[in-house]
Design brief:
MFS transporter, 381 residues, transmembrane helix, 2 domains, Growth Hormone, Chain: A, 16 helices, mainly alpha
């Protein structure tokens, strides 16, 4: 299967980002305030929410590899615009490119992988392959984060953005070389206008209760992981006695835990323990991270990320199994839309709790949201 090698190359290229580790410092050095940075994140979430489903419908009607390549190419301009940005407007263009490109490519690679495996009668291997791709991308990004921190300290922040320009053109080229998988569904659907494809896709998802549950649970997991555990956990480090010097090492370790969890997800799916076990363990670890006042609390943050990342490829596999071919990327786009909406809701509540009670108490309350995932009734096989 040539597509798996090309998708692996895309995962490597997307991980070749040296700038993310100093992204906030770079924006600050160009004159942005914390409030402006928060506004940029809101702009990103709103644009993504608006574009996700139409872009997913476009991928379901058009050739998926072209939509994926277009998304990767547009993401390239996030770094181009950032290099020449010296005010809020300049960085807004960078976030516009990131949101547009991200919406175009959202769920497309997973759809191509699943349909490729389906052509060869190997759908049960999806979780294994998806875990491998996420492991590879995470490992590459972890190494690049370490290198980015060093290069930024030695040669300035800007060098990391120049180096980050290399990966995405490689990804876009690999995407164009993908073999477009055939669809088992009628070509009549391809003739629908995009807005009708969107309407029809949403209607089919709302009717499929199991698929709708998968979409909502994935959105909560995304919001807890990406917006809070990855982004906000570092605010706890100074309160538990961890100096800034070790932030880079901790970040590398957490990325390593995440990558190993993605790789182990296929094994976990076969243990019969179920998703609820991982959700419960993750919720307990989040609570302990917010409760403990010692430096070793950081290990519970890493463990929480590990448990929740363990479920990520499994949830992606469940979504692909439940979605029909003509709405496969549309379903993934609905999931991303819900994830952005959930991120705003949980992030707003988290921020309010942190302001009123402190950041550690906010993480204890976040554990309650994560604990709600235990109510999910989903099977890993």
């Amino acid at each position: 299967m040539g597509n798996t090698r090309k998708l692996l190359l895309i995962a490597i290229g997307e991980g070749l980002v040296f700038a993310y580790v100093i992204e906030r410092l770079f924006a600050e050095s160009r004159g942005l305030s914390v409030l402006e940075m928060q506004s940029l994140l809101t702009i990103y979430a709103v644009i993504s929410a608006v574009l996700e489903i139409p872009c997913g419908a476009l991928a379901d009607r058009w050739k998926k590899k072209y939509v994926l390549a277009a998304g990767l190419f547009i993401c390239y301009f996030e770094f181009v615009f950032s290099l020449f940005a010296y005010d809020f407007l300049g960085f807004s263009l960078a976030y516009l490119a990131a949101a547009t490109g991200g919406s175009l490519k959202s769920g497309v690679a997973e759809s191509i992988l699943y349909m490729t495996l389906k052509e060869h009668g190997r759908e049960p291997e999806f979780v294994k392959w998806q875990g491998r791709f996420q492991f590879t991308g995470g490992a590459v990004m972890g190494v690049c984060s370490l290198m980015g921190g060093y290069l930024a300290s030695e040669y300035g922040l800007e060098i990391t953005y120049w180096l980050s320009l290399a990966g995405l053109p490689l990804c876009a080229g690999a995407a164009l070389l993908l073999e477009e998988p055939s669809s088992a569904d009628s070509e009549v659907e391809k003739q629908l206008p995009v807005w009708k494809q969107v309407k029809s896709g949403i209607r089919s998802i709302l009717k499929a209760k199991q698929l709708l549950q998968i979409v909502l649970i994935s959105a909560i997991v995304y919001a807890v992981l990406q917006n809070e555990l990855y982004e906000m956990s570092m605010l706890v480090y100074p309160e538990i006695g961890i100096p800034v010097l070790y932030f880079g090492v901790i970040s590398f370790g957490i990325i390593g835990v995440s990558a190993v969890s993605n790789l182990a997800s296929d094994w976990y799916a076969g243990t019969g323990l179920g998703l609820r076990t991982a959700f419960a363990a993750g919720a307990v670890c989040i609570f302990l991270f917010g409760f403990l006042q010692e430096w070793y609390a950081v290990f519970f943050a890493a463990a929480a990320i590990g448990f929740l990342e363990l479920t990520s490829p499994i949830m992606a596999g469940l979504l692909q199994e439940q979605a029909s071919d003509e709405y496969r990327v549309t379903a993934a786009s609905v999931e991303s839309l819900c994830a952005n909406a959930m991120s705003i809701a949980i992030g707003t509540g988290f921020g309010a709790a942190a302001g009123a009670f402190g950041i550690q108490t906010a993480f204890q309350l976040l554990a309650v949201a994560a604990g709600g995932l235990v109510l999910a009734r989903l099977q890993t096989k």
